[in-house]
Amino acid sequence: SNRIPHTRAGPSLLLRFKFLLLLQKPYPPRIAGRRSSTPRKSSTVEGYSRQRASGGTVGEEVGFGAGMEAQATATVKEALAALYHHPDDTIRTAADRWLQKFQHTLDAWQVADSLLHDESSNLETLMFCSQTLRSKVQRDFEELPSEAFRPLQDSLYGLLKKFNKGPPKVRTQICIAIAALAVHVPVEDWGGGGIVNWLGDEMKSQQEFIPSFLELLIILPQETSSYKIAARPERRNQFENDLCSSANVALSLLTACLGFDELKEQVLEGFASWLRFCHGITAATLASHPLVHTALSSLNTDQFLEAAVNVTSELIHFTVSRDSCGITEQFPLIQILIPHVMGLKEQLKDSSKDEEDVKAIARLFADMGDSYVDLIATGSGDAMQIVNALLEVTSHSEFDISSMTFNFWHHLKRNLTGRDSYTSCGSEVPIEAERNRRMQLFRPPFEVLVSLVSSRVEYPEDFHTFSEEDRRDFRYARYAVSDVLLDATDVLGGDSTLKILFMKLIQACGSGAEQNQNWQPLEAALFCIQAIAKSVSIEEKEILPQVMPLLPRFPHQEQLLQTVCSTIGAFSKWIDAAPAELPILPPLVDILNKGMSTSEDTAAAASVAFKYICEDCRGKFSGSLDGLFQIYHVAISGVGGYKVSSEDSLHLVEALSVVITTLPQDHARRALELICMPIINSLQEIIQQGESALQQVPARHLTVHIDRLSTIFSNVKLPEVVAEAVNRYWPTLKIIFDHRAWDTRTMESLCRSCKFAV
Question: Where in the numbering of this chain does the Exportin-1/Importin-beta-like domain appear (predicted)?
Answer without folding.
Answer: 167-311
